[in-house]
Design a protein that fits this description.
The complex is a heterodimer of chains A (about 170) and B (about 300). With about 170 residues, chain A is mainly alpha-helical. Chain A is built from seven helices and no strands. Classes of the chains: A mainly alpha (about 170), B alpha+beta (about 300). At the A-B interface, helix 1, helix 3, helix 4, helix 6 and helix 7 of A face helix 1 and helix 2 of B.
């Protein structure tokens, strides 16, 4: 319970940082989502069921963001699935979760697939996401920014995870 | 024991997914509680966004001002202290000047049309992760702003008020993929529908298949009943390309919007308008070409002495 509370508080802080600081810079190609990267990094480091819970909390925050165009619950559903999937892929696979390079690649791929799933589910729910070209630019832009941002924040996120879950930092 | 643990984790996963699906269903059915949660979040975030906008303004300018690659290290060290102070002041001044210019242009625009406006600063740019184009401004319902009000920039239409909170409001930009506005062509009065495409270029669909549009035509907003969501006569953009493909029901075109959405610092929300339609009064004047001076030199050859 204590660990869940600490996770909630940290996700909330990252959400505020995302909304108040990261969103101030209109980066080319759509920029990056710190909350998305944070959640996926933590998900890779934890067990699948805990990862699903992390995905649920971060998804709720992403849904509550004013810039979210879809219905509340859309990001929640996607984040549960994404966090569970990366945790499942990462658990026991040292080549993916044991070294920073594999970690960064897994995170970037997850970001790409989450955004792609968002576009697909938006189409199903009737939410406009823009022209094909614009969607493609945003997808590639967000993935590339994630590739740049993940190695920068990885040590901090990994350290915070180790601190919260009383484990040894793997990175 | 292990089977029991797996069963619990599977149950947790199912509960979480069902909760998410339940939330989607509730939101799509328009349950007010969830909308209240979004409003509450924005109320909590608003002070942080305001503080972030104030703190980060010099840095945002700083990144674009780094153009000192050719200087030697010695010179930089010598002038660093003075430079830091002066640059900080200059950036603040530049930022203030830019906002003042934007504000002046907005006031000119609104004054010509007889719009009653509320000025506001942009305190946050919406994240593009959800493929939407939004901004948050620092004025809300306490300043008289309501949903579905037109938002102006220095050069024309910026967007429409999507959500209102006590001290802030969310604006859907005209570039948002879900943005639609009825427009008319200045002069010919042909009407059409303009749709956002995620960037500064928008697509125009004419309604009447007997009319035509040409490159350079200027588009103005048509206006709505009781001026909400759109007041009439606001410049939107100009036509850059016309699609003349055979078989199309009505002509379509690509439009370049006047507003530079990447540099929005100050905007104005139209909270009231005169009963009269400003017509084409707000059509921006075409830029005059700068005359190039021509210099004519007459050379007279000096007579050479002949023997």
């Amino acid at each position: 319970m204590r660990q869940i509370s600490l996770t909630f508080i940290q996700l909330f802080i990252v959400f505020i940082v995302q909304e108040a600081i990261v969103n101030q810079f209109r980066l080319p190609g759509g920029g990056f989502s710190l909350l998305l990267i944070f959640s996926l990094v933590w998900a890779i480091l934890t067990l699948p069921e805990i990862a699903a819970l992390i995905g649920f909390i971060s998804g709720i925050f992403m849904d509550l963001s004013q810039s979210s165009s879809g219905p509340i619950g859309q990001w929640t559903l996607l984040m549960i699935a994404a966090c569970y999937a990366v945790a499942y892929l990462g658990s026991g696979n040292e080549s993916l979760s044991g070294n920073p390079l594999g970690f960064t690649f897994l995170t970037m791929s997850a970001v790409f697939f989450v955004e792609l799933s968002f576009v697909a589910t938006s189409a199903l729910l009737g939410v406009a996401t823009g022209s094909f070209g614009q969607v493609l630019i945003t997808l590639l832009g967000v993935s590339i920014w994630s590739l740049v941002a993940t190695p920068i924040f990885l040590p901090l996120f990994s350290y915070l995870h180790a601190l919260t879950f009383n484990t040894r930092s793997v990175l | 024991m292990r089977r029991g643990g797996e069963g619990r984790s599977r149950l947790l996963l199912i509960i979480l997914i069902v909760t998410a699906l339940f939330l989607i269903t509730l939101d799509l059915r328009g349950v007010g509680l969830l909308e209240g949660a979004r409003q509450g979040t924005q109320t909590v975030l608003s002070p942080f966004q305001r503080a972030g906008a104030v703190v980060l303004t010099p840095f945002k300018g700083f990144f674009s001002e780094v153009t000192h690659l050719g200087r030697t290290r010695h010179q930089i060290e010598k002038l660093r202290a003075d430079n830091a102070k002066l640059r900080s002041r200059l950036l603040q001044r530049k930022n203030a000047d830019a906002q003042l210019d934007q504000l002046k242009s907005i006031l000119d625009l609104a004054g010509t049309a007889g719009f009653k406006i509320v000025n506001a600063r942009v305190i946050s740019q919406g994240s593009s992760q959800s493929f939407s184009q939004t901004i948050t401004i620092d004025s809300g319902s306490t300043a008289g702003i309501k949903t579905n009000m037109t938002v102006l920039s220095e050069s024309g239409l910026a967007g429409v008020v999507k959500e209102v909170f006590p001290h802030s409001a969310l604006i859907a930009l005209a570039t948002d993929p879900s943005f639609r506005i009825g427009v008319r062509i200045a002069g010919s009065q042909q009407i059409g529908i303009l749709s956002g495409r995620g960037n500064r270029s928008a697509s125009l669909q004419l309604i009447d298949n007997l009319t035509s549009v040409k490159v350079g035509d200027i588009l103005l907003s048509r206006g709505s009943i009781a001026n909400r969501p759109y007041v009439p006569g606001v410049p939107v953009g100009y036509v850059t390309a016309v699609d003349n493909s055979a078989g199309a029901i009505a002509q379509s075109a690509t439009v370049h919007m006047y507003t530079d959405f990447s540099s929005l610092g100050v905007v104005a929300v139209v909270v009231g308008a005169d009963a009269s339609n400003p017509g084409d009064a707000l059509v921006p004047s075409k830029p005059r070409p700068t005359p190039v001076p021509t210099v004519t030199i007459y050379a007279t050859p000096t007579p050479t002495p002949t023997n």
